[in-house]
């Protein structure tokens, strides 16, 4: 599927094209200083599920989608108007390819893939969790790339030689866009591999040894905002366009939400939800239940760190109501259905369909519904799904603020579910802070564009980037905190019943 939108015929100023390579599709979008004009192209790509718990992507198909959407946007904008390209991508998804032939060694293994569960358990039993936490800021979980790379090298016929390249999707796209000349990534993506020392901002020989990953196959790590290379006509796109910004999707969204100062936080309500809190230029010690990640680095050496809460299922629970249970026929129906009842009727849903993420990190939890009575309706179930989004976000932010020793003043939100005003009001009530939704919610693409444009002078400073952010709606806490706390306490009781369900 391809879509192309152009809502203005006026001659635009120089723009930056953001390539947003997500989990289910690729979008290329032109971002102009001052906003207003929208030119974008989108293509979906295939999801592969070769075995239960396995998720794969065809990296060649992703590249072809990128090339096609990029060409459409460049043609619509005009090559002379493109100042730079920025890349943002699904994180943790990893692949190996041959530098000489350009061919991948099989499909990429996606961040959702759980095939290395037992290997992560084994490493934890061997006592390696403290090394992982201190070095990488992560936890031992199949979510991250390290155990995926180990599996690739052990289970596919991959020669470990000078032609081997290993990288996340950003590295694969950069390599192709530059005609095979640049194999690089940025610290925000590198910090999600479980192979990167987030304090020295370099690949960790110790972690590479744990997973048997050859250092020479990994990409160079360059500043998130800075020139990585230029496009090559050999790859089928216009040549000599600077590629000057790269960031993982959630860090890009933090930048796109203009959370540029310590203490600012955002939540993206997508298939899952990802809460990030800017904690400044000093890497904090490991915090229980939280991930520590590099938010971005700038060309002048500035570094920003973030604490992250990774919630595996939020919007996916809406999809489950639609596709699994048939409670709704369109995702957009859930808001009105949930609003048709005054409360949840005592029903609580814990959407631990693939285990629990932050702050619990329990891969053996499973989904639970409690409080069902003869009076329970599909509206109560819909409301329980929406409320679960807000409870999980509260749990993550509470742990995050405790670890960082800060209290957030507001939460900036984006993602598909953020269109639901009632959900955002519930979120404000649960957190007891203001929730703000921006005018432009394509914050991931905006972040990639801002990083690239900052490097090329399209935006002269971080203040200029911050000035681009504008608010669409503000939600103030309106419920008695005692009532919100009682509902949350009941949620925690339900959550405990979901934990450690699978015998292992």
Low-pLDDT windows of residues: 6-10
Side-by-side strand order of the widest sheet: 1-4-3-2-6-15-14
Q: Characterize the biggest β-sheet.
A: 7 strands, mixed
Share of helix among residues? 25-40%
Radius of gyration equals 22 Å
Percent strand equals 15-25%
Q: Let me know the average pLDDT.
A: 92
Counting helices, strands and paired strands, the structural category is alpha+beta
Separation of termini? 42 Å
DSSP helical segment count: 15
Q: Total number of β-strand segments?
A: 24
Shape: globular
Report on the architecture of this protein:
The protein is globular, with a radius of gyration of 22 Å. The two termini are about 40 Å apart. The chain has 15 helices and 24 strands. Helices cover about 35% and strands about 25% of the residues. Strands 1-4-3-2-6-15-14 form a seven-stranded mixed β-sheet, with helices on both faces. It is of the alpha+beta class and about 500 residues long. The relative contact order is 0.12.
Summarize it.
Helices cover 33% and strands 23% of the residues.
Describe the secondary structure blueprint for this structure:
Layout: E1 3-6, E2 15-21, E3 25-31, E4 39-44, E5 56-57, H1 59-77, E6 82-89, E7 94-98, E8 108-109, H2 117-125, H3 129-136, H4 145-155, E9 164-168, H5 169-177, E10 184-185, H6 187-190, E11 196-197, E12 202-203, H7 205-211, E13 220-221, E14 225-230, E15 242-248, H8 249-256, E16 265-269, E17 273-280, E18 291-297, E19 303-311, H9 315-324, H10 334-339, E20 348-350, E21 368-370, H11 378-404, E22 410-414, H12 421-431, E23 434-438, H13 443-456, H14 462-466, E24 471-475, H15 481-498
Parallel strand pairs: 2-6, 6-15, 10-13, 16-22, 22-23
Antiparallel strand pairs: 1-4, 2-3, 3-4, 5-8, 7-9, 11-12, 14-15, 16-17, 17-19, 18-19, 20-21, 23-24
Helix pairs in contact: 1-5, 8-13, 9-11, 11-12
């Amino acid at each position: 599927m391809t879509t192309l939108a152009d809502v203005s015929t006026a001659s635009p100023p120089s723009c930056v094209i953001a390539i947003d390579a997500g989990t289910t599709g690729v979008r290329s979008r032109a971002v102009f200083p001052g906003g207003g004009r929208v030119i974008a192209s989108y293509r979906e790509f295939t999801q592969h599920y070769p075995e239960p718990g396995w998720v794969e992507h065809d990296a060649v198909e992703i590249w072809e989608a990128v090339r096609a959407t990029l060409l459409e946007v460049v043609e619509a904008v005009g090559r002379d108007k493109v100042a730079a390209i920025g890349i943002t991508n699904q994180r943790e998804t990893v692949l190996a390819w041959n530098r000489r032939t350009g061919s991948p060694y099989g499909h990429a293994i996606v961040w959702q893939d759980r095939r290395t569960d037992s290997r992560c358990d084994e490493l934890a039993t061997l006592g390696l969790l403290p090394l992982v936490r201190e070095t990488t800021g992560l936890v031992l979980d199949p979510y991250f790339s390290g155990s995926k790379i180990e599996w690739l090298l052990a289970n596919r016929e991959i020669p470990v030689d000078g032609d081997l390249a290993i990288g996340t999707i950003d590295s694969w796209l950069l390599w192709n866009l530059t005609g095979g000349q640049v194999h690089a990534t940025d610290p925000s993506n590198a910090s999600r591999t479980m192979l990167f020392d987030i304090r020295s901002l370099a690949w960790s020989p110790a972690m590479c040894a744990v997973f048997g990953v050859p250092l020479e196959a990994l990409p160079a790590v360059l500043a998130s905002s800075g020139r990585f290379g230029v496009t090559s006509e050999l790859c089928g796109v216009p040549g000599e366009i600077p590629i000057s910004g790269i960031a993982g999707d959630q860090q890009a969204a933090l930048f796109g939400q203009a959370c540029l100062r310590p203490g600012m936080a955002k939540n993206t309500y997508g298939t899952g939800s990802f809460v990030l809190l800017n904690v400044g230029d000093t890497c904090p010690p490991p915090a229980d239940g939280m991930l520590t990640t590099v938010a971005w680095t700038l060309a002048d050496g500035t570094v920003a760190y973030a604490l992250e809460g990774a919630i595996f299922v939020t919007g996916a629970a809406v999809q489950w109501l639609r596709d699994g249970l048939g409670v709704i026929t369109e995702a957009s129906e859930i808001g009105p259905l949930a609003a048709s009842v005054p409360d949840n009727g005592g029903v609580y849903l814990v959407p631990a369909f693939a285990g629990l993420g932050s702050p619990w990190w329990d891969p053996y939890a499973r989904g639970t519904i409690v409080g069902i009575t003869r009076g329970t309706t599909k509206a109560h179930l819909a409301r329980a799904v929406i409320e679960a989004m807000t409870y999980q976000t509260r749990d993550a932010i509470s742990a995050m603020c405790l670890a960082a020793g800060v209290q957030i003043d507001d939460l900036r939100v984006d993602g598909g579910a953020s269109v639901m005003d009632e959900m955002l009001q519930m979120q404000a009530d649960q957190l007891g802070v203001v929730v703000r939704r921006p005018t432009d919610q394509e914050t991931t693409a905006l972040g990639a564009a801002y990083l690239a444009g900052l490097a090329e002078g399209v935006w002269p400073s971080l203040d200029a980037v911050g000035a681009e952010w504008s608010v669409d709606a503000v939600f103030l806490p309106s419920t008695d905190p005692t009532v919100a706390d009682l509902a949350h306490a009941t949620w925690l009781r339900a959550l405990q019943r979901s934990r450690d369900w699978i015998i292992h």
